[in-house]
Amino acid sequence: MNCEVCQLKELEVESFEIREVLRCILHTIVFHRALGLIRPKDIDLELFEITYVQCGEIEVEKKIDEKIDQFISWIEKHPNKKSQICLSFYEVKSKQPSWFTNKIERLYWEQWYINLNVLQPTKSPVGKSHHSKLVMDPGEASEERSSRRTLLEQSLQDVLFQIIKFVNEKKDHVPPINDGVIYCPFEITIPSSSDSAFGMDMFKRILHSGHPSMLG
Amino acid sequence: MSSSHNRSNNNNSEGAKAEQIIFEFFAKSLHIILESRTPFMSSRNFSGDQMICSPSSSSSSSSSVRPRDKWFNLALRECPAALESFDIGRRSSLEPLVVDVVLVVRPLVGDQMNLSAKRELIRNFSEKEYQSGWNSDQDELGCETKNEQIIERWVVQYDNRKIRESVTTSSRRSSSSNKLQLMYKKATLLLRSLFVMVRLLPAYKIFRELNSSGQIFKFKLVPRVPSIVEPFTRREEAEMQKFSFTPVETICGRLCLSVLYRSLSDVSCEHSTPMSPTFITDYVGSPLADPLKRFPSLPLSYGSPPLLPFQRRHSWSFDRHKASPPSVSCSPSPTRSDSHALVSHPCTRHLPPHPSEIPTGRRKESYPEEYSAYQDFSPPLSPSAPIQAVPRGITRTESAPVRIPAPTFQSKQNIVAPNPHLKLSRHASLKPVRNFGPGESGPAVDKLFLYGRDDFRKHSGVRPSSNSSPGISFSRSSSRSFQEDFDDPDFPCPFDVEYDDITDRSSRPGSFDHRGDMHEPLESSGSFPKKSQDAAVGALVKMLKKAPPLRQDVSESSIPEICWNNNNKPARAQEIAVASITASGLALTSKTTADALEELRSYKEMKNHLLLSQSTSNPSSVTTSPFDV
C-alpha cells in the first residue's frame, strides 16, 4: 500500500483565525475519509463565508479540537512561524509478535500537510485567539484587514478545492470500506515544543509504518 | 459447462448489482444537489439545533436510518423533491441526469418595488437621494431582459461507450465482486466530494442566505431536472466554470459527474445585496402597504367597491393616527394624505430598491415560473387584482418565514372590478414559459411587460426630467399609459387610488387629473345614501378639499360649499364639486409644499368647524339631507 501525500497550499492566517481554518480543513479531509454510515453536518464558518462538512462523529470533533488547542498554544509560544500540521490516515495491523515488539502496527496510507503561516497579530492579543469574534473589534476593521480576510477566504476555498481534487484523483490507495468503521483512523501531528521534537515524532512514525516513501 | 453457467449467472447478478449501484448513485447525487439547493430542506438543519424545517421530518431523519441512507453510507435529509423529480420508471441509466439550478428573480415583486419606489419618490420628491436611487434602478431595469438564470448545471452521466475495453481488460485482474466493491467505494468517495463541493460553489451562498434569514428576497433558487435540456450557448458556457469529478469506473462503463457553474462575481455580487432590510420596511406599518389591511373589512362596512379609495386611504391614516374618527377619515383629502406622507413618512420607510437589487443580466423571462409551484409562495395571485395591490400582497406574504394566510386576496377579488386584460395576463403568467427563448417572450409575458416593466422602461427617459420638476408628471404619464395600454374603460379605480394617494394634487396636470378626479367624486356621491350622516359630511368635505387646489380663486369657491352644507343645501355640492374638480384639473399651479401644508391646515380647521356644526345642527334636517337626490 502506497502512502499518498498531499501538500496543501499555504495559508497566511492570523492567530485568531487558526481555529476556524484548521477545523474547516481537518474536518473536510476527515469527512472524505469517513466512509462508514455518517450523517453529515454542515458548519458555517464564523469568519468566512464558507460552509464545511463534518462527519458528525463526536470523537472526531473532539480529537480535532484537542489538537487545534495544542497547536494554538504552541503557536503562542512560537509566534511568527510557518508551521505544518500533518493529518495522517493509517490502517491498523497487528504485527507479528517477536522478541523485538508485539505492538500494533500503523500503516499510513495517506498524509495531508496543512501549511500555515501565522502572521504576527496586529491588534488583538494572541492569547484570546480562541474567541476571535470577541477579540475582533468591528470598529477597527480596516480596509486592509478585510481585504486580507477576503484573500484568506479565497485561499481557504482553494485549499478545499484542492482537497476535493486530490480525493477525486487518488482513490485507489484508500482502504476498502469496512462494516462498522465510520471513519478511517487518523492522527494529527503538530509541531511539539521544539521543531526537533516534531521531527522526532515524524521519525518515530516513519519507523512504525515502515514506509520510507512517506518522507516525501 | 456448469462453471461457465455459474459464471454467467454471477455476471448477471453482478451486472444487476452494478446497475443498482449506478441507479442509486444517480439518486444520491440528485438528492445531494437538491438538498443543498432547495431552501429549507438541507442538512443544515439535520442535527436539529437549527430547526427551520418542520421538526417532525428532522427528528425522524436523525433518529432512524432509512434504507436509502445506507447507500454510500450517506444519510441525507429527507428531500421529497429529489424523489419526485427522479422518475425511477422512466429513466434509463444511460440517459444523463441534468440538474439545473436556476436563480429566479421575482420580477413582479421587483416591479412592485419600483412602483413603490416611484410612489415614494413622488412623496419625497424633495429628497434627492431617492430620486437618484430610482433613476439608477430604472437604468438597471431598462437593461433587464431576463429574470432567470441557470447558475449551475450538474450532469450525472453513465458513460458505457469508451471505457468498455479497458475495463474488461482490467477486470480480468481482479474478481468481479472486488470490482463491484471498488466501484462502490469510489462512488462513495465521489459522493463525499460532491457533498462538500455543493457547499463550496457560489450558489450555496445564495441558498444559505435564503435559508438562514427570515427575510424575503427578490430571488430564489429553483433546482430543476429538465426533461429536455437546453444546451448553453457558447457564450454562456464560456462564462461558466467547469468542474469534472474524476469518473468512477464500473464494470462496463464509468460514472461521470460534472458541474458547470457561474463564478462568484456573476452570481453573488449581483444578488447578495437584496438582503437589505429595506424590503421589509415596506410592509411593516407602512402606509403604502397598509391599504391591504382594510380590504376584508370593505364589503362589510360599506359593500360598495367604489368606496375603496376612501376606505383604503382611511385605513392607514386612521390606523397610524388614531386621532381621526372613522367617519371623518372616511374622506380624508388627498392633500391630507400627502401631508401624512410628507410629515410622518420616515426616510427609512420603503427605500427605493438599491440599484443592485434590481435584477439584471442574462436571466430568462419567465415570470410564470415565478408563481408556479414555489413552496413558500403560498397565496395565489388574484387574477383580477390590480397590479399595484397584488405584488404588495406578495411582499407581505413572503415577508414572513411562516406562511401568512391571506384572506385579503379573496375579498379583494370580490371588491375590485375585474379587469379582463389583467386577468388574462395573470392567468397566462401561470403557464410555464420554458418554451420562450432567452430573447423572446410569449404574449403573456409581453403583456406582463406591457405594464410591468416596459412601461417603466418606456418612461425611464421621462423620469429624470419629471423628477427635476416636482417629479409628479411622470407618475401621471405613467399611470396614463397604463390606462392607454390596456384601453380598458372599466379599469378599476385602485389605480386612481394609488396615484391619488401618492400625488400631490396641487401639482397634478390636468390631463390625468381630469379623469381621476371625475371618477372619485362620482363614486363617492353614488355611495352617499349608504353612509351615515357623518360619512356624508366627510365625503363632502373631501370633495371640497379636493376641489380647490392651491389656487386662491378655486379654494375660495369651496368655502361657499361648506356654507351650503351648513345650511343643509348640499344638493348642489356635487355640481360644485365636479366644477371645482374640473378647475383643479386645469389648475397647473406651482405652489410649494409649504403652501400645500398651509392650505391643509386651513382645510382641517374647516372640517372641524363643519363637524362641530354638524353635530350641533338639527338632526332632522341632517337626516333629510338631499344627498339621495
TrEMBL record, chain A:
<dbReference type="GO" id="GO:1990316">
    <property type="term" value="C:Atg1/ULK1 kinase complex"/>
</dbReference>
<dbReference type="GO" id="GO:0000045">
    <property type="term" value="P:autophagosome assembly"/>
</dbReference>
<dbReference type="Pfam" id="PF07855">
    <property type="entry name" value="ATG101"/>
</dbReference>
<feature type="region of interest" description="Disordered">
    <location>
        <begin position="124"/>
        <end position="148"/>
    </location>
</feature>
<dbReference type="GO" id="GO:0000407">
    <property type="term" value="C:phagophore assembly site"/>
</dbReference>
<keyword id="KW-0072">Autophagy</keyword>
<dbReference type="GO" id="GO:0019901">
    <property type="term" value="F:protein kinase binding"/>
</dbReference>
<comment type="similarity">
    <text>Belongs to the ATG101 family.</text>
</comment>
<dbReference type="InterPro" id="IPR012445">
    <property type="entry name" value="ATG101"/>
</dbReference>
<protein>
    <recommendedName>
        <fullName>Autophagy-related protein 101</fullName>
    </recommendedName>
</protein>
From TrEMBL, chain B:
<dbReference type="InterPro" id="IPR018731">
    <property type="entry name" value="Atg13_N"/>
</dbReference>
<feature type="region of interest" description="Disordered">
    <location>
        <begin position="459"/>
        <end position="531"/>
    </location>
</feature>
<dbReference type="GO" id="GO:0005829">
    <property type="term" value="C:cytosol"/>
</dbReference>
<feature type="compositionally biased region" description="Low complexity">
    <location>
        <begin position="324"/>
        <end position="336"/>
    </location>
</feature>
<dbReference type="InterPro" id="IPR036570">
    <property type="entry name" value="HORMA_dom_sf"/>
</dbReference>
<dbReference type="GO" id="GO:0034727">
    <property type="term" value="P:piecemeal microautophagy of the nucleus"/>
</dbReference>
<feature type="compositionally biased region" description="Low complexity">
    <location>
        <begin position="463"/>
        <end position="481"/>
    </location>
</feature>
<dbReference type="GO" id="GO:0034497">
    <property type="term" value="P:protein localization to phagophore assembly site"/>
</dbReference>
<feature type="compositionally biased region" description="Basic and acidic residues">
    <location>
        <begin position="502"/>
        <end position="522"/>
    </location>
</feature>
<dbReference type="GO" id="GO:1990316">
    <property type="term" value="C:Atg1/ULK1 kinase complex"/>
</dbReference>
<feature type="domain" description="Autophagy-related protein 13 N-terminal">
    <location>
        <begin position="22"/>
        <end position="263"/>
    </location>
</feature>
<keyword id="KW-0072">Autophagy</keyword>
<protein>
    <recommendedName>
        <fullName>Autophagy-related protein 13 N-terminal domain-containing protein</fullName>
    </recommendedName>
</protein>
<dbReference type="Pfam" id="PF10033">
    <property type="entry name" value="ATG13"/>
</dbReference>
<dbReference type="GO" id="GO:0000423">
    <property type="term" value="P:mitophagy"/>
</dbReference>
<feature type="region of interest" description="Disordered">
    <location>
        <begin position="321"/>
        <end position="368"/>
    </location>
</feature>
<dbReference type="GO" id="GO:0000407">
    <property type="term" value="C:phagophore assembly site"/>
</dbReference>
<dbReference type="InterPro" id="IPR040182">
    <property type="entry name" value="ATG13"/>
</dbReference>
